[in-house]
Specification:
heterotrimer, A: alpha+beta, OB fold (Dihydrolipoamide Acetyltransferase, E2P), Dihydrolipoamide Transferase, Chloramphenicol Acetyltransferase, seven-stranded mixed β-sheet, five-stranded mixed β-sheet, B: alpha/beta, Rossmann fold, 2 domains, about 20% strand, globular
Chain lengths: ~375, ~325, ~80
């Protein structure tokens, strides 16, 4: 069971997409796990043959629990996204201590205990009884009332999304993560105002020649500039755990997406610094759509090495975020505003954006942060090079 | 002489009195009817059911028999074959074992083996059940054994009304009928509704309607079950109580209807669980109402030991209101 | 296409972007981005959708015409005719 967020302690296995004997390769989605942030597809990063499914559908297990066994060339394909040491082998210590002992190995019966009439009712409602975790019947069986309760709850949670993206749960998860971050990470904050006239002009010309679907948003430039600048200040890109900062050799920017109705999620755009502007726009568009549908993959949630948030054209003038542990920085872009600016001793109006940096003071200090923001501002002056 | 009271205003009487009145009515209305059994005449019956009948109807019609169940049940079979309407009393079901051959091999089988040439319209009355501190050989409930036999009709009147009127219907049945009278019911008082003159001997009856669970029982366990239902009601659990009345043939339809509505059931049977009538009822529910069930089927039966003699041990062995309540509660509100 | 059809289309496409929106509540002078909480990505997607459905390529400089229903309908009507 992967940790799909620093604060995640347990998850529920809701669907197996493979069975023993299936051949899998790196990147295959093999299961779907339900967390407070919704249903997440779990990918495998090895090649081999599935030999044992150890956790049945419907079971909730702590992070770190072995879900299945794969036989085959170990580590033959791309290694799992362990640039951030957040992945399975090392869950947060408190998760293991607090989780009650779970029957991890395959129980004799992996079918939920459910009464005949409840099973019939679930079938009539097209509900998989395996999703109903709480049975109040004899011997913990799922009975009619439990199906009805689940069905009415599921109705409330049902958006266009599939398996219940529960926003109240998500808010709880965000609250927990942000509280922990504020408690544990000594943040420092810097801002920089950047003249965007070159960038604005460049985007106008670029978009004028493109069909709507090819046009890029200013945020694409922000994203690329912020990612490239991290090549110069590697100490802002990586993970801090157990008192040690491990810089990441890749830059996977977690792109903060707000969900309709509230809730925030920041899935990764892998190798952000290596992508073209067109590729970035496509990736952002795809992530926004999948995030709102509740259809993200586990690797997208576990692999960000830094987070960037951009408020867009209707947000506040600046945004200073809270770092997502175990990352060590979060960069924010405010709304593009037109303001008086001094150019060659004259006052002119220019489009400006306020870039902010919140960073972990255990790893960097204001000097590094300042250099970083300077780099971002510089890169945005030469948009054609982004 | 008192005429049978069938049409008076609601009359209160004991179960014992209802049995006696049923016998009187039979003796008065059909000259072919006569009674046979141990101590039924001069002694007035072991449970005083037949008290006064010898004086009223004479030795020809109220016949004290020797202490030989096989002989007098056999004689009853013969009398029935010859066209009489004997009502044979076996003192308790425990002693009926001695007449099992007469009942099963003769009474039930002769109509079949004679190709219908002989009908055996024999009625046998037996006392049954425990609670009287008369120990292992005198306290069993073997109604379930008899309910196993094709060709027999098995009745278990549990109310004054059924005690009063089931006999008449049994006598009208051309096949052997056994009527079980639970020993703890004889002193029970009840009301005879004024407008009832007969009852059927084929259907179970809903004694109490409820929506949460069906309590299915018969005979001496009925009143305990009704008490349990009241206790459960005070906890907010509405129990439905079914009085089976007839163990063979079982009124599966009424049982299945009830359980299909409440979706849970407890079967209360004073026999021992294994291979009992409660087992038969449970399987029929599983066969015909499986997809309606929202909880496993549970039973409250006598503990599987020879019925004890000591009062506290006998009480612990037999079904009691408390055990019925606990079983029902556990299905409706599992802990 | 009639005005009514264009209006219905715009609202339908907004409904796909903002499924929880009360589409019937939109007034002609409302800023669509405000009342339906559309950010720049949503708006960009709306433009893409209008392009796909109507074959109308709306240049960036004209985006501000789409902010309000009334002007959006007028603009699109004009654009389709051409």
């Amino acid at each position: 069971m992967p940790a799909l967020g620093a604060d995640m302690e347990a998850g529920t296995l809701v669907e197996w997409l493979v069975k023993p004997g299936d051949r899998v390769k790196s990147g295959d989605v093999i299961a779907v796990v339900e967390t407070q942030k919704g249903a997440i597809e779990v990918e495998i990063f090895q090649q081999g043959v599935v030999s044992n499914i150890l956790v049945p559908v419907g079971e909730r297990v702590p992070v770190g629990t072995v879900l299945a066994q794969i036989d085959g060339a170990p580590g033959a394909a791309t290694p799992p996204p362990l640039e951030t040491p957040v992945a399975a082998p090392k869950p947060a210590p408190q998760a293991l201590a607090q989780a009650p002992p779970m029957p991890v190995l395959a129980a004799p019966s992996s079918r939920p205990k459910i009464t005949p009439v409840a099973r019939r009712r679930a079938a009539a409602l097209s509900l998989d009884p395996a999703l109903i975790l709480r049975g109040t019947g004899v011997e913990g069986s799922i009975r009619l009332a439990d199906v009805e309760t689940y069905a009415s709850g599921a109705k409330l949670a049902r958006r266009p999304a599939k398996k219940g993206l529960d926003l109240s749960q998500m808010r709880q998860a965000i609250a927990a993560a942000m509280s922990r971050s504020k408690r544990e990470i000594p943040h420092y904050y810097l801002t920089e105002t950047v003249d965007l006239s070159a960038a604005s002009t460049w985007i106008e010309r670029y978009n004028a020649e493109k069909t709507p679907v090819e046009r890029i948003l200013p945020a694409v430039l922000f994203l690329k500039a912020a990612a490239l600048a991290l090549r110069e200040q590697a100490q802002l890109n990586g993970a801090y755990e157990n008192g040690v900062f491990v810089p990441s050799s890749s830059i996977h920017v977690g792109w903060a997406i707000s969900l309709r109705g509230g809730g925030l999620i920041a899935p990764a755009i892998r190798d952000t610094d290596g992508k073209s502007l067109a590729e970035l726009m496509a990736a952002m568009r795809d992530l926004v759509e999948r995030a709102r549908r509740g259809n993200l993959r586990s690797s997208e949630l576990t692999s960000p090495t830094v987070t960037i948030t951009s408020v867009g054209d209707r947000g506040a003038e600046s945004v200073t975020g809270i770092i997502y542990p175990p990352q060590v920085a979060i960069i924010g872009f405010g709304r593009v505003v037109t303001r008086p600016w001094v150019v060659d001793g004259r006052i002119e109006t220019r489009p400006l954006v306020t870039v902010s940096l919140a960073a972990d003071h255990r790893v960097t200090d204001g000097h590094i942060g300042g250099l970083y923001l300077g780099a971002v501002g510089r890169l945005l002056q030469e948009p054609d090079k982004l | 002489m008192n005429a049978p009271q069938a049409n008076a205003a609601a009359t209160r009487m004991t179960y014992r009195e209802a049995c006696k009145q049923a016998l009187r009515e039979a003796l008065l209305s059909d000259s072919r009817v006569f009674l046979m059994g141990e101590d039924i005449g001069r002694y007035g019956g072991c449970y005083a059911v037949t008290k006064g009948l010898l004086e009223e109807f004479g030795e020809e019609r109220i016949r004290d028999t020797p202490l030989s169940e096989s002989a007098f049940v056999g004689a009853g079979v013969g009398a029935a074959m010859a066209g009489m309407r004997p009502i044979v009393e076996i003192m308790t079901v425990n002693f009926s074992l001695l007449a099992l051959d007469q009942i099963l091999n003769n009474a039930v089988t002769i109509p079949h083996m004679s190709g219908g040439q002989f009908a055996i319209p024999l009625v046998i009355r037996m006392a049954t059940g425990g609670g009287r501190r008369v120990a292992a050989q005198h306290s069993r409930s073997l109604e379930g054994w008899y309910a196993h036999i094709p060709g027999l009709r098995v009745l278990t009147p549990a109310t004054v009304e059924d005690a009063r009127f089931m006999l008449k219907a049994a006598l009208a049945d051309p096949n052997p009928v056994i009527i079980f009278e639970h020993v703890m019911l004889y002193n029970m008082e009840g009301d005879l509704p004024p407008d009832v003159e007969e009852v059927d001997i084929s259907q179970a009856k809903l004694r109490r309607a409820g929506r949460d669970i069906s309590l299915i029982t018969y005979g001496g366990s009925l009143f305990k079950t009704l008490q349990a239902a009241q206790e459960l009601a005070s906890e907010g659990i509405e129990a439905e109580v079914i009085d089976l009345r007839v163990l063979r043939p079982l009124d599966t339809k009424t049982i299945v209807n009830s359980v299909s509505r409440t979706r849970r059931c407890v079967i209360i049977d004073e026999g021992w669980r294994s291979g009992s009538i409660s087992a038969e009822i449970g399987v029929r529910i599983a066969e015909e109402a499986f997809f309606e069930l929202d909880a496993p089927i549970r039973r409250v039966c006598s503990r599987e030991i020879p019925i004890p003699y000591a009062a506290h041990l006998e009480d612990a062995c037999l079904p009691q209101m408390a055990t019925i309540v606990a079983a029902a509660r556990e299905l409706v509100r599992p802990s | 296409m009639t005005e009514a059809e264009i209006r219905a289309l715009i609202l339908e496409l907004i409904g796909e972007i903002a499924p929880e929106a009360d589409l019937g509540s939109a007034q002609d002078q409302d800023d669509l981005r405000e009342i339906f909480d559309l950010d720049s990505m949503d708006f960009a997607n709306l433009v893409v959708a209008l392009h796909d459905r109507l074959g109308v390529n709306i240049p960036e400089v004209h985006y501000n015409q789409l902010f309000k229903l009334e002007s959006a309908i007028a603009f699109l009507r004009n654009a389709i005719v051409q």
